[in-house]
């Protein structure tokens, strides 16, 4: 019964917390609406996730989320420095093709989302074979270093969490 009501418990918790943070108040109406969203959205989307991978390494995933949040803060500072203090001719933006070893669509999606959420980089496309991400970097004087950072900092952790 509980599994039918909450087919994706982590998604339900995330939706509940997101709604409370969005409305920025803890009142009865906000809690009721958060509960409605946290119940209905996972129930309605459950048929579209028939083979979702179980998230067994919740502490590792929580550590990944904290790492990404920290990297977003640092990247905001770096982008501000680039925009405010670098001359346009010194900015080395470019397209990078990142070969990925991830297999599950969820892990690939989280990697692409992480790259996009981190200021200064955006995921643009994925190869038809699903093994290469095309990203744009605002400033990548050493493209190999950027690729190495993404593979070791994010992809390796996602591999341990999902595969």
Helix content: 55-70%
Envelope shape: globular
- Based on CA atoms alone, the radius of gyration comes out at 19 Å
Biggest sheet statistics: 3 strands, antiparallel
Strand order of the largest sheet: 1-3-2
The string of secondary-structure elements, in order, is HHHHEHEEH
Return residue spans where pLDDT drops below 50 for at least 5 consecutive residues: none
Instruction: Give the mean pLDDT.
Output: 89
β-sheet strand percentage:
5-15%
Structural class: mainly alpha
Total discrete domains: 2
Overall strand count: 3
Distance between the termini: 29 Å
Number of helices: 6
Structure description:
This protein is mostly helical and 163 residues long. The chain folds into two domains: 2-48, no CATH class; 58-162, no CATH class. The chain contains six helices and three strands, in the order ααααβαββα. A hairpin with a 5-residue loop joins β2 and β3. Keywords: Cell membrane, Membrane, Transmembrane, Transmembrane helix. Its main location: membrane. One of its GO terms (molecular function) is monoatomic cation transmembrane transporter activity. It is found in: Cell membrane.
Furnish the topology, listing elements before pairings.
Elements: H1 2-5, H2 9-23, H3 28-45, H4 58-85, E1 94-99, H5 105-117, E2 121-126, E3 132-137, H6 143-162
Antiparallel strand pairs: 1-3, 2-3
Helix pairs in contact: 2-3, 4-6, 5-6
In short:
With 163 residues, this protein is mainly alpha-helical. It is 60% helix and 11% strand.
